[in-house]
Amino acid sequence: MKLLDRYIFTEFTRSFLTAMAGILTVYLCVDFLQKADDFIRHQANLSTIISYFLYSLPAMAAPSIPMAALIATLLSLSALSRHNEIVAMRASGVSLGRIIAPVVAGGLMIAAFAFLNNEIITPAYSERANHIRNVEIEKKEQKIVFQQRHLWLRGPDNSIANIDLITPDRTEMLNLHIYKLNPDFSVRERITAGSLLWQDGAWRLRNAWKFTPSGDGMISQPADGEVYNIVDNPQDLGMIAKRSEEMSFNELWEYVRKLKSSGYNATRYEVDLYGKLAFPLSSLLMVLIATPLSLQRVRSGGAGTSIAFAVMIAFSYWGLMSVGAALGRSGTLHPAIAAWIANIVFGSAAVYVLRRMHMSNG
């Protein structure tokens, strides 16, 4: 029996890896064609372009994994049925549940990998890919000094700024500590500010105080309204502040907590937060819902039909997931329900179809 499990699991795994390779190849080709003009304009060398795409692979793989799992299930089980191997197994006394167990186990492993990819691999690799594109290819100035619990940025006039939070609309930075340095890196002026607000085409300090060393003492004076153009405009924060998909679950959780404690609406990011738990399970759901369908549709066509059917199921899932996310971000649905609604619907459908298959093969 272990040999049979290994055989079915190997067929499923081979189909999954083939499907992933095909999907990622299409992604890479399309992405390269979209960015080719930028690479030529900035005279990027081949090694830098290759590095950029290698570091972009985990982010490309994240939405591709459920589709690949779906295609792998349809192809592997359909092939077993088409060659009458399922009939032979059943005639030997092997239950249908036992036959599909290795495929379900493969789905669980894929779901676990999808979570690890979203949580650990993609954030780190996406950050590196963004650095290669912005700094090495487009030759933009690297303003990030380092980032841990707070964000440190290089500013004008030989200064650095510590920022606690960037708001979702990118027009305000909260809780700043600004240090203006002398050539020997001693502090010539320190500023604390409640916020840095984009107003009238400039970044202006709010609730700010300026501290200047004087002999053995310190001179303090208000600095409200002073201009401190740390970046040219709010759009430039896009290369500094991470998007939801570039954050780990813990980073996004902390960002949501800070937004709420600062009085900002964090609904959009709450939907994304719950989605980080819901989306990896879609791979397992694709396996569960495709298993009975692949066995029932064996005589209706070959690999082409299976792939077309997989695309139809995947588009239905992503369509429902997009509708749920839109309803959640608008406040119509609770963020958790919005993120999980596609899984709830497709999970219920999978349970129903599996029960029907079990009853009909009683």
List keywords for this structure.
362 residues, alpha+beta, seven-stranded antiparallel β-sheet, 7 strands
Description:
- The protein has 362 residues and is an alpha+beta fold.
- The protein folds into two domains: 232 residues, no CATH class; 96 residues, no CATH class.
- Strand 2 and strand 3 form a beta hairpin.
- The longest helix has 42 residues.
- It is elongated.
- About 1% of the residues have low confidence.
Beta strands, count: 7
The SS-based structural class is alpha+beta
The radius of gyration computed from the alpha-carbon positions, rounded to a whole number of angstroms, is 26 Å
Span of the ends, CA to CA: 21 Å
- Could you name the ranges where pLDDT drops below 50 across 5 or more consecutive residues? 145-149
Average pLDDT works out at 84
* Largest beta sheet: strand ordering: 1-2-3-4-5-6-7
CA-based shape: elongated
Tally the helices: 9
Helix percentage: 55-70%
Largest sheet report = 7 strands, antiparallel
Number of domains: 2
- Portion in strands: 15-25%
Order of helices and strands: HHHHEEEEEEEHHHHH
Protein topology:
Elements: H1 2-41, H2 46-82, H3 85-91, H4 96-137, E1 144-147, E2 151-155, E3 159-166, E4 172-181, E5 187-199, E6 202-214, E7 217-222, H5 249-261, H6 267-278, H7 282-296, H8 303-329, H9 335-360
Antiparallel strand pairs: 1-2, 2-3, 3-4, 4-5, 5-6, 6-7
Helix pairs in contact: 1-2, 1-4, 2-4, 2-7, 2-8, 4-7, 5-6, 6-9, 7-9, 8-9
